[in-house]
Amino acid sequence: MSDDKKARDRLERMDDFVLDDLSSISDEELLKEAIEDGVDLEEVGRAGLAALDRAQLVVGRRRMAAIRREMEMDSRKPPMRPVRGASQASLRGILARNQEAASKLTMAARNETGSLDDDAEGIMADFMELGAIPGEGEGGT
User: Fold this and answer.
1) 96 Cβ contact partners less than 8 Å away, ≥ 6 residues apart
2) pLDDT digits (tens), the chain, 141 positions
3) b or e along 58-95 (b: 16 or more beta carbons within 10 Å of the residue's beta carbon)?
4) How far apart are CA 4 and CA 10, in angstroms?
5) 103-to-86, 91, 96, 110, 113 alpha-carbon distances in Å
6) I need a surface site. Which of 8, 37, 55, 128 has the fewest CB within 10 A?
7) How many CB atoms lie under 10 A from the CB of residue 102?
């Protein structure tokens, strides 16, 4: 066994010992020991909250970086084009099966005026992106 492996094993055993000791003591006993040892509980609380804040920032930055990478990859994809006839027929079928959704689909964007036909191209593009209707291009037919 290498020295690194031995050192890691000792560290793991020590971690296990400390964690077992901490989990076997009641909260009241732990607080009493901390006070007896002169631990500033408010400072420990502030430090813990600061550590959580930093961890949230790190996680948020990683998520944002992943989202940016996905957006960059998406922006490089060629736009999907409707398959003549099939896409429009699919859109009509979706809207026929969902009458209530069809009546509300873009009302907010149209301030509850105009017709669904005015927005058909955008709606079709959205449904193609979602894979609900066929389109030509990357990932399409």
Assistant:
1) 102
2) 578 889 999 999 999 998 888 889 898 998 899 999 999 999 999 999 999 999 999 999 999 999 999 999 988 887 777 666 676 777 777 777 777 766 666 554 555 555 656 667 777 777 777 777 777 664 444
3) eeeeeeeeeeeeeeeeeeeeeebebbeeebeebbeebb
4) 10
5) 22, 14, 10, 12, 11
6) 37
7) 16
Cα–Cα distance for residue pair 92/125, rounded to 1 Å: 14
Contact residues for 20 (Cβ-Cβ < 8 A; gap 6+) = none
Q: Which residue has the tokens 């990683």?
A: 62
Q: Is 115 helix (H, G, I), strand (E, B) or coil?
A: coil
Task: State the amino acid at position 93 in one-letter form.
Answer: G
CA angle, 90 as apex, 94 and 86 as ends, to 5°?
A: 175
- DSSP string for residues in 61-90: HHHHHHHHHHHHHHHHSPPPEEPTTHHHHH
Look up residue 103 and give its two tokens: 């009546």
Question: In this structure, which amino acid lies at residue 90?
Answer: S
Q: How far apart are alpha carbons 65 and 70 in whole angstroms?
A: 9
